[in-house]
Design brief:
Elements lengths: L15 H8 L46 E7 L6 H14 L2 E7 L2 H10 L6 E3 L8 H6 L7 H4 L24 E2 L2 E2 L2 E13 H7 L7 H13 L3 E4 L6 H15 L1 H8 L10 H15 L12 H9 L3 E7 L2 H4 L10 E4 L14 E10 L7 H11 L2 H11 L17 H13 L3 E2 L3 H4 L1 H15 L5 H16 L11
Parallel strand pairs: 1-2, 1-3, 7-8, 10-11
Antiparallel strand pairs: 3-10, 4-5, 6-8, 6-9, 6-10
Helix pairs in contact: 1-15, 2-14, 8-9, 8-10, 10-18, 17-18
């Protein structure tokens, strides 16, 4: 997607340039990426890495990029589009004389699984979206490069620093498997609820801070023929944004870590998990869901929300970019932290925030020198700014965007929410570490939202997924303190 210009200030006169400058100071920690659906990967074929791609190394060319070689780039063409990657590739060719084969697609598994299986993967991949190949599956099959060499290389902007030291603290965590960083979660993201500023102003609604206020708006919306909550029914990852945020905000970081650490009382026996899933089920029972939302894809549900058929929707901050063509010009998209249940451990301002959108370098990439340099350059201010211009979003690079870049209302709203959250940010890692478990919990949520099971059964199924994962000896390598 490409960005377009917006007014340069908010309603209170805050300049968007100031917001971007301030975002550099947000020491945010990382979030899971969008590992919506699991897929199976199998081992690669023969190791036929082409040594013709290796050039001479030097201080300015630490990986030995060779002029005249080719780079095979695959980008998930979702909410952020792929124009930013085309701009990167043009810049890379100009500097290094390396031409790129560019593929922009949503069919990551369909297009890439056969290539991984044959030992002929691309050189660099944005492995995201509903058809993502799970990072843990690729890692277990030995198909991912350890990115330590890239992260320990000199920063392009300040060679006295390592690349890893120029990133927002904690943003590498979501790409770790077995203690190694094997995926670079590049995009700064927040997760939560979203609403239309225009609709709320017209209806006289105030953004709710408590769950009771959220339910009151949903009730009023229903009385006027509007859904209270929309969710992307065919991808239950999205409703788990609400469930899991409520667990973390109600029970605090210990409740969140219990899930990531596969505790025997992560769900069954957890007061926070019980309260969270019962709160979501109340929305279902009282008929506050947007009609039909359970059977819709993400874009179908989001488009109906853009048509003012629901007050709220759950999503991450790619939502605004994904819905550019469907969003009315005066919609005034706004981000909202998850409202609080009674006696919550975390404040209303607390949000799930950090890094998303995993970029990987396959272990059998043909042009490893260029792939490593390409990733190193992604973490330069020049390319981070290119990304912000084209994709209307921030990256994990500290102070990574030139002050002249303007962001759209929803992204601006997310930046403001991040500033308000300060250190009150959290993130789950089970979606990266344990894709099979994540899918099992999503499947339970799908049944819950359709009223085929009730909260008690959801808790049982979620706990069963945790207990099954805990039996895998590999799980012991992943631990949150």
């Amino acid at each position: 997607m490409g960005s377009t210009s917006d007014p340069s200030s908010t309603a209170d006169g805050t300049s968007r340039r100031d917001l971007i400058k301030r975002s550099a100071a947000l020491g945010l920690i990382s979030v899971p990426t969008m590992g919506f659906l699991s897929a199976c990967a199998s081992g690669g074929g023969d190791d036929d890495t082409d040594t013709d791609t290796e050039g001479k190394t030097s201080e300015k060319n630490p990986f030995g990029v060779k002029e005249g070689t080719k780079l095979d780039v695959v980008i998930f063409k979702g909410g952020y589009g792929d124009d930013y990657a085309k701009a990167w590739e043009a810049s890379f060719e100009k500097k290094w004389g390396v031409t790129s084969t560019h593929t922009g697609t949503q069919e990551i598994t369909g297009k890439l699984q056969p290539r991984f299986n044959a030992g002929n993967p691309p050189d660099i991949v944005d492995d995201s979206g509903a058809q993502q190949i799970p990072i843990d599956v690729l890692y277990k099959n030995g198909q991912l490069l350890d990115l330590a060499e890239v992260l320990d290389a000199p920063s392009i902007d300040d060679p006295s620093k390592k690349v890893r030291d120029t990133l927002i603290p904690g943003t590498l965590d979501a790409g770790m498997q077995g203690g190694k960083v094997v995926a670079l979660n590049y995009i700064y993201t927040v997760w939560g609820l979203w609403y239309s500023g225009k609709l709320f102003e017209e209806k006289g609604w105030e953004a709710p801070r408590t769950w009771d206020d959220f339910l009151a708006i949903s009730k009023d919306a229903k009385s006027q023929g509007i859904g209270g909550l929309a969710h992307q029914g065919k991808y239950p990852y999205y409703i788990n944004v609400a469930i899991m945020d409520l667990i973390a905000k109600t029970g605090g970081l210990d409740a969140m870590k219990a899930i990531d650490n596969l505790e025997p009382d992560a769900f069954v026996g957890s007061d926070a998990a019980t309260a969270a899933v019962e709160a979501i089920y109340e929305v279902v029972e009282k008929g506050y869901l947007m009609p039909g939302t359970n059977g819709l894809t993400h874009t179908e549900s989001q488009t109906r929300w853009n048509q003012y058929k629901a007050a709220f929707i759950t999503s991450g901050s790619w939502l605004e970019n994904e819905q550019l063509k469907q969003t009315p010009e005066d919609f005034d998209m706004k981000f909202l932290p998850m409202p609080l249940l009674p006696d919550s451990a975390l404040p209303f301002e607390a949000i799930r925030a950090g890094s998303g959108e995993p970029f990987i370098i396959p272990a059998k990439a043909k042009n490893l020198p260029a792939a490593k340099e390409f990733m190193r350059t992604m973490l330069s201010k020049e390319w981070s700014t290119l990304f912000a211009k084209e994709a209307n979003s921030l990256t994990i690079l500290k102070d990574g965007v030139d002050s002249g870049v303007e962001l759209r209302p929803g992204t601006q709203s997310a930046v403001e929410a991040s500033k308000a959250a300060g250190d009150n940010t959290f993130r789950y890692l089970y979606t990266e570490w344990y894709s099979e478990m994540g899918t099992a919990i999503e499947n339970a949520s799908n049944e819950l939202m359709a009223k085929r099971i009730q909260p008690k059964e959801w808790l049982k199924r979620a706990q069963a997924a945790v207990d099954k994962q805990a039996k895998d000896p590999e799980s012991k390598k992943n631990r949150r303190d």
